[in-house]
Amino acid sequence: MAYIYAILMASVGPTLTQNSTTPTDSLIVRLMSPKPPKAVLFDLDDTLFDHRRSARGAVEAIRRIEPALASASDEEVNQANREILEEIHLRVLSGEIDVDQAREERMFRLLERFGGSATQADAVRLAFHYRQAYQGIREVVPGAHALLAELRHRNYRLAVVTNNMTAEQEEKMRTLRLSSLVDELVVSEAIGVSKPDAKIFRVALEWLGVRPEQTVMVGDSWSSDIVGAVGVGIPAVWYNPLRHEVPDTTLPLAGQIHALEPTTEIADTIQQALEP
Ligand SMILES: [Mg+2]
What we know:
This protein is α/β, with parallel strands linked by helices.
């Protein structure tokens, strides 16, 4: 009996003991359940990680030391920062400029927008303060840890699929205590393409060993997460905390959420995207 048990343990792998009360319970469930594996892919920035909150804190920090930014309203500077960041981030993803150049250029552009001017040294100094404040404020979106734990408990394989630099996202995942809650981290820099390119979603599916129709994508970006996932046949749940209008009602959306909690309710919505 012990011999058979050892073979079975080896065949079901290291995930066996993660969710169930005892290895034997889990083993019986797995052996009696012929269901194919299922998975949830999550975007990171502004879905699991509260990038918006960090960016606001960082803007507040540089407004305190830069008169040109202090004279504009908080919302105006935040809006400008978001727009400039989005535009420059695309140039980083395409490899046109590196992250340090991007951070400095953002400060030049931000000051320019509000009638200020910066020397190279000013831009470096502001970028440093922005970065320091941004790193110091980082938090997950409320409910993120509990939601990932609940989905894992429901036997979903989990991955984060994100457009950014690999080192940056790995460090962020560790700092936010997200690394141990997901099975895979798929970063655009490592794959060579960014969402919505089909390749990055296909890599995530391959690494998790699942098919598109067994998978749900959850993300805040309509153009990257939702359009990208639907394009490869992955049902998509739009995380839409600011309650924007659905940009394209002809696109089959599997669900919409405005927060990551209450945990059970959100996990149910994600589950229903696969089992309507
Ligand atoms: Mg996002």
